[in-house]
């Protein structure tokens, strides 16, 4: 561009001001997240529930539950049973079906371990509304927690915090 052209351009744009810029994200919104193996997990939950009859799990409505992995010391279990650990979060499963409760429990435990929580309370209820099947959620939660690798121990809660309708759960703190 020559000097004459540059001078003409400057005269042409002499009164011009830059436009105000509004930045807009023109990308489409990301798709909603979906569990990749949800159907398989639901099918596995159904298959597992059919493997065990409620009577086989041996849990009654008012029965206290206790569980600890082999490496968990008796003094830790005793402290857990007595409610000596601070409850850092809670999940209430009342009103959920077994399939819904399993998914809620799985998501809750994943979140709790990701947040490095040490002790949580799971409220499963006493199963008084379950009729002749007995306490369905109580039996199921007992089984599911025993199979979850991040669960070190669990014990029925103190009477003031749910008693045999709730559990204190001690979690492994991942590094």
Strand and helix layout:
Blueprint: H1 3-12, H2 38-51, E1 66-68, H3 74-81, E2 90-92, H4 98-114, E3 119-123, H5 136-147, E4 151-156, E5 166-171
Parallel strand pairs: 2-3
Antiparallel strand pairs: 1-4, 3-5, 4-5
Q: Could you characterize what this model shows?
A:
The protein has one domain (38-171): Ribosomal Protein S8, Chain: A, domain 1 (2-Layer Sandwich), CATH 3.30.1370. The chain has a 5-stranded mixed β-sheet, sandwiched between helices. Helix 4 runs parallel beside helix 5 (136-147). It has helices at 3-12, 38-51, 74-81, 98-114, 136-147, and strands at 66-68, 90-92, 119-123, 151-156, 166-171. Mean pLDDT is 82; it is low at 52-57. The chain is elongated. It has 175 residues and is an alpha+beta fold. It has 5 helices and 5 strands. The chain starts with a helix and ends with a strand. Helices cover 35% and strands 13% of the residues.
Radius of gyration (CA) equals 28 Å
Number of helices: 5
Briefly note the CATH topology name.
Answer: Ribosomal Protein S8, Chain: A, domain 1
- Count of the domains: 1
Report the portion of residues in β strands: 5-15%
Widest sheet: strand order?
1-4-5-3-2
Number of strands: 5
> Quick one: CATH class?
Alpha Beta
CATH architecture label = 2-Layer Sandwich
Q: List unreliable stretches of 5+ residues.
A: 52-57
Main sheet characteristics: 5 strands, mixed
Helix coverage percent: 25-40%
N- to C-terminal separation?
64 Å
What overall form do the CA principal axes indicate?
elongated
